[in-house]
Amino acid sequence: MKRAKIYFQTTPFEGLIKSAYETLRVECQGSLFGRRNPKTLEWFIESILPSQLVDRKPDGVYFINKLAATREEAELIKEKIGEYHSHTMFRKDHAKKVCMSKFDAEMLKQRKDEIEIIIGVKKAKITTLPNNPFLATCYIRNKGNLYRFDIGGYHYSGKLRRAEIIVPEKVIREFGV
Ligand SMILES: [Zn+2]
After folding, report:
1. 86: CA distance to ligand 1 center in Å?
2. I need a labelling partner for 66 at 20 to 30 A (CA). Which of 27, 31, 57, 81 fits?
3. Which residues does residue 119 pair with via DSSP β-bridges, in sequence order?
4. How far is the CA of 150 from the centre of ligand 1 (A)?
5. CATH code at 88?
6. Which domain holds residue 124?
7. Is there a domain that residue 156 lies in?
8. Is the residue at 86 inside a domain?
9. In tens digits, what is the pLDDT along the chain, a chain of 177 residues?
10. Could you tell me the distance, in angstroms and rounded to a whole number, from the CA of residue 99 to the centre of ligand 1?
11. What's the pTM?
């Protein structure tokens, strides 16, 4: 079977990393929009809509009680092609890992022709960029801490499969070191 491919544009990829970073201690979550061609197993992510519990203000990030957008609201925007969420280092299960939990897989199975992006988040000591087509890795340095974000993607065609992640090289360079 042909290998599936997930293509990120620059803005949604940066948005995804910021989404995961802003909610470092809790799982971030949101919807992916763009185009898809299930026959050629290609998904093109053109925008994301975070539905996490933070509000971005000019002077910082604040936790809010209401979700920025519910999944139902997100459905109203056409061409939803998938969802994303993070596996933070503070979780009890699947911490830091780019993998699909049983629950993740079950949910994806029900969403025909959609993808799920998983962001594994952990503290890192050194920056290395692995040469793995199924992972896009980048880093954010803040106040002496270095955080590593591993991004992987999945789709369901008869069974759960990983997809190749393709990100504009300049984005990886920007977040790389
Ligand atoms: Zn998960």
Report:
1. 7
2. 81
3. 86, 151
4. 13
5. 3.40.140.10
6. 4-48+80-176
7. yes
8. yes
9. 789 999 999 999 999 998 898 878 778 889 999 999 989 999 999 999 888 655 555 555 555 545 555 555 555 555 899 999 999 888 778 888 999 999 999 999 999 899 999 999 999 988 787 789 999 998 998 888 899 999 999 999 889 999 999 998 877 777 754
10. 7
11. 0.81
